[in-house]
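Handoff note, outgoing to incoming analyst
You'll be picking up this chain. Sequence as last confirmed:
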Amino acid sequence: MADNVTSLFRSTAAHSPSMAALAREGGDGTGPVDFCIPCNPYFPTPAMMDTMASRLKDIITYYPSSADTITAELCNLLQLPPQAVAMGNGSTELITWIDHLLVRESLAIPVPTFGRWTDQPMETGKRVDMFPLQESSGFALDLAQYAEFIRTRGTRVAVICNPNNPDGGFLHKHALVQFMDAMADLDLIVIDESFLEFADAEQEPSVVQEAMIRPNVIVLRSLGKNFGLHGIRFGYMVANPSLAGRVRSMLPKWNLNAFAEYVVFMLKEHGAEYAQSLHQVRRDRLDMASQLAALPGLTVYPSQGNFLFVRLPVGAEGTVVRDRMLTEHRILVRECGNKIGSSSRFLRLVVRPQVDVRRLVSGLEQVLYGTRRGAAVPELAQGTSYSSGTAAVDRLVGQTNGAGMQDLAAMAVGGGGMGGGVGMPMPVAQPMAAAAAAPMGVAASMGTASSMGAGMPMPAQMPAPAPMPAPAPAQMPTPPPAPAPFAPPSGPTPVGVPARGGLTAAQVRGMTAPAPGAPQELSQAPATGWPNAQSWPNAAGMGQTG
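Most recent structure output, in case you need it:
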């Protein structure tokens, strides 16, 4: 059973296997404790679930109302004009149509991020310029550098996820407005606010109102994440009526299902419960971050999402941690080695109630340190089929570039400037230096380390008692010499050249031409007045700080 379950992760690309698949392979039909899929654990309430269950037969038997009817009810709740809104069967349906209709030749996106923002445009032959977020700065997005990157590359569409997935990085509203002003000549700017409901760093963080009066801005929001109902598949976008109408005109009449309709129409009676659920998630996030930060060698990055991005201790391999947490403790975590710009040293952990967090921390202690803290699990031996951040780039090269160019990932690794981004390797640590620089608990456990995998130090001994004898370290071949650092050009970056040391999808794919017959410009919306945001319901989403 364990092999069947873990094999599901090897067969996925930039995402995790579904909970249904994991439950089927688990043997008893029940899923694990889920720290992977970013749901709201407090909404809908048990009473709401009971109400939906009592109406199940009617919900699944009959056609839903049209998308226009469901959208009108949502807009009434949010106090948004229906002309400025398009609802999709999940935000990914809207991402797909945004790409088909509004992305002509190129799109810029900071990485790591949600996989559809990189994969979808590449699947339709667009150039994707990936701006690497640097680990040294906590994966924070510097908007000035991002704008410079866009100008250097000549990109026509810019995407920002706020908060970003998987790290939870947050940008204040005034900074985003300044960015939109500076990039007003682009074909399109998309602000993906799928996780913004969980943020509490600002009273009114959404730029929805800005999107409705600008000719080239779309705000994307997810209802499934906020409401803890991923399976229903519903999300919406807000833009000026011209842009929203173009997307809405392409959507099927019944693209929203009856469950989505039922939930939207019941929300007006449960605003207080929803606001309380957001408040509780924010409190749980602080508590969970505190407990995880107490684990030796584990780095927890600041987050405004309903998840935390963590770096494992030196020597720990994320796929091993993920598989052991699942098979030994029935806990599902999101290992981020298949996200471009990340590596297997990083996990994304969804915020859950304290009782579940205690189980998570206990499992991590056993997997990472055995019976004592301080000795991390070893990395995988040579020959594994698991992928790191660099391997994820190699996978894209192999699938989309035919003959190979397999050295592109190495070029990005050796590049200067933004070298902490796409395909960023795990640092090669010398045993003594690593022990000196490591946190107290980790350094004390290292002793005399041996090398394995990517050159990371191994603990001097495995925790005892151990059920099996520790395997001998695999002998690794002598690594090739590092390539010469990439020198960024002084003028505009030619197409197909890494921008400032980063690897772009133009190189991966080898295509730069705009799609034939693509529209040349976006139409401008007429100037009209719309209602201002209120506390609940409001145009920026349902519920703010708590």
